[in-house]
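[step 3/7] fold_predict: job queued, chain A
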Amino acid sequence: MLLSFLGLPPAFLILSFITILCALYVVTNNNPVYSVLALILTFFSISAHYVLLNAQFLAVVNLIVYAGAIMVLFLFVLMLLNLNKENEPMVKMGWYVGAAVSAGLLLVILAAALHRSSEQIMRNPADNIGLVKNLGKVLFTDYLVPFELSGILFLAAMVGAVLLGKRQTTNENSHSDSES
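[step 4/7] structure written:
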């Protein structure tokens, strides 16, 4: 009875609870490394939501891009910054009260929206809309020109990054040679 809240499937409710719990831990924890690890768990549970919605491609892309690449980048930045408690600014109590009121209002709005659309949330009109086969079909038929243009843009960005990197190393070598 408890897990059939608003007629939603139990797996969705459990994953939602885990997602919200991990996201709250990210915001409330003082240790930035533990916050990043909790953010990785949040991304994993969001990917599980994608799997429930039959969007396996989005789930895998979410794991690779966010939980993989961006979180590793966050961890490296945090370790390079070497954050200490002495460097943190003091936060007044009014900010905590404002944040709690804002979070409560957001929860009320989300509950009202969820209550109005509880039957339509998990109803998927097309059963295989998130599959890679269907995504590829739409990508290479309806959106072929934007797909090719974005590929050319990414190629130009990579070539530009390589040229800028080579130019900086040759400039540094010429400066060190002239100083000798």
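[step 5/7] annotate
The domain at 7-84+92-127 is CATH 1.20.120.1200 (Four Helix Bundle (Hemerythrin (Met), subunit A)).
The chain has a mean pLDDT of 77.
exit 0
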